[in-house]
Write a structure and sequence with these properties.
Layout: H1 14-19, E1 42-43, H2 50-59, E2 66-70, E3 79-85, E4 88-95, E5 98-103, E6 118-119, E7 123-124, E8 131-132, E9 138-140, E10 161-165, E11 168-172, H3 180-183, H4 185-191, E12 199-209, H5 213-217, H6 226-229, E13 243-245, E14 251-256, H7 271-280, H8 300-316, H9 325-329, E15 331-336, E16 340-344, E17 349-357, E18 360-373, E19 387-389, H10 403-422, E20 430-431, H11 439-456
Parallel strand pairs: 12-19
Antiparallel strand pairs: 1-20, 2-11, 3-4, 3-6, 4-5, 7-8, 8-9, 10-11, 12-18, 13-14, 14-15, 15-16, 16-17, 17-18
Length: 468
């Protein structure tokens, strides 16, 4: 088999590939809207400029929905989760009146009320002992006699909007932001069959990277870099013929066929060769498969779809006979603007979140969470605790997760810091994105600009209608 190389625009689209699946095509994978975004380059300095970092902090992070934690992180009354993004800090707390979220600052002198995950019966400021209830009302103020400017209303801890979907807790600092269920509706509707409310957290990695949060997010928003960054995946992913579309202004999708060789492989492997290469390269989907005596005419997707279906039937005790091959094998990613991704389909699926490090335009954090079906006959397992990985720590150093998956992340994290530093050597000072395969990335930048423009103009936050 010859070395992989770039090829012309592939003849087969993702829709062509799944149209040949014997199990049929699920309706939710039909193409959504595409957008005309132009081909102009963007200024590279937005990846390291303190000025642009400050604009995002003021007009983006303060107005978008973001996943803060999961219900499993605060299961009992009084449990608190400490969430930070850029310069902002929040308390997410389970109360007798439901989950609430507050700006994490004493209203007196601004001291953080909590600095870690904890359990509280009330929030006492460690500086002057002013104390609030879990519902945000002042219960003790040792210097109330000297603070006539406070009354019952303006002394409450400022709350932020909260939404909960399948155990994930989202917050938004803007009281006038569109409801989470409105902006995320296409994803919520399409992921409903895959029982996200009946999963457990198998692992959680918090990886710190020497790069801007956008530099960190972008490799996970297109598939064609597999050619060079992830060569072991090429026999099993339709990378350069992936589908990219936009169900609404806040939701984008990236869909790549699995158990399908990249169109760039020349010559194209036979179905038997695809499976053999997947097994040789440690693909998790082929674990436990005996390839001896497999007929040449059996399509790899059909064979692995049946294997995935049988495995899920056995491990969960549920009937997956109606599950489509695409729902079992393909890489189906839903991005929620600007910094979250949820994978669709049956079986174990990933969640991504990207954040800027506090005060550092060239430092960021990626959360990688695996959500898995609850095994047959077992109680819901305890959620995995977060494993924090520094700039130089490899994901492969962790015990959790499959070795093939951790290799993919280490390959990406090996690229990203050099993208960050390399951009500064661009003579033009411009970053150039491809027109279709990097449309999700270009759209992200244009929508960030729109948030900054509307924020400066004191206009309402953009709604979910796709207007580009």
């Amino acid at each position: 088999m010859s070395k992989n190389k770039l090829s012309p625009k592939p003849e087969n689209s993702y829709q062509d590939i799944i149209s040949r699946d014997v199990t049929g095509v699920p309706k939710f994978l039909e193409p959504a809207a595409s957008v005309a975004l132009g081909v102009e380059g963007i200024d590279a300095d937005r990846y390291w400029s303190q000025e642009f970092y400050d604009l995002e902090n003021e007009y983006l992070w303060s107005k978008v929905w973001q996943m803060a934690c999961q219900i499993e992180d605060i299961p009992n009354e009084g449990d608190c989760f400490h969430y930070e993004i850029a310069e902002k800090s929040f308390i997410i707390v389970n109360t007798a009146n439901g989950v609430k979220a507050y700006h994490n600052a004493c209203l007196h002198r601004g001291r953080k009320l909590i600095t870690s995950h904890c359990r509280k019966i009330e929030f006492e400021c460690p500086f002057h002992a002013i104390t609030w209830s879990l519902d945000g009302k002042v219960v003790r103020n040792p210097i109330a006699w000297d603070m006539p400017q406070w009354n019952e209303e303006n002394s409450k801890l400022p709350a932020v909007k909260v939404a909960i979907w399948c155990g994930f807790i989202f917050i938004n600092m803007d009281d006038n932001a569109p409801d989470f269920n409105v902006i995320a509706n296409p994803m919520i509707k399409d992921l409903e069959p895959f029982e996200w409310d009946n999963r457990y957290r198998e692992f959680w990695f918090e990886k710190h990277v020497k790069a801007n949060w956008k530099t960190l997010a972008e490799p996970f928003m297109e598939s064609h870099h597999s050619q060079t960054t992830h060569p072991q995946l090429v026999p099993a992913i339709g990378d350069i013929n992936s589908q990219y579309d936009f169900p609404n202004a806040y939701i984008s999708r990236q869909i790549s066929a699995g158990a399908t060789a990249s169109p760039a492989m020349e010559p194209q492997p036979s179905e038997q060769e695809k499976l053999a290469l997947m097994k040789k390269r440690g693909d998790r989907r082929i674990d436990g498969v005996d390839l001896e005596g497999l007929p040449d005419e059996v399509r790899a997707r059909t064979f692995l779809g049946k294997h995935a279906r049988d495995t899920l039937n056995a491990t969960t005790g549920k009937d997956y006979s109606e599950a489509k091959d695409s729902e079992l094998l393909d890489y189906i990613l839903y991005g929620i603007f600007p910094h979250m991704t949820f994978w669709a389909g049956y079986g174990s699926k990933l969640v991504y979140r990207w954040r800027p490090e506090p005060g550092n335009p060239e430092g960021s954090i990626m959360d990688i969470i695996m959500m898995s079906p609850i095994p047959l006959g077992e109680k819901k397992p305890e959620p995995a605790r977060k494993v924090v990985l520094g700039y130089n720590d490899k994901v492969s150093s962790c015990e959790q997760g499959s070795s093939s998956l951790k290799l993919v992340f280490d390959q990406d994290f090996g690229n990203i810091p050099h993208i960050q530093t390399g951009m500064k050597s661009l003579k033009s000072g411009k970053i150039n994105f491809s027109q279709y395969t990097e449309s999700r990335i270009r759209y992200m930048h244009q929508f960030i600009d729109r948030f900054i423009e509307t924020g400066r103009a004191k206009e309402p936050i953009p709604n979910a209608k796709l207007e580009f």
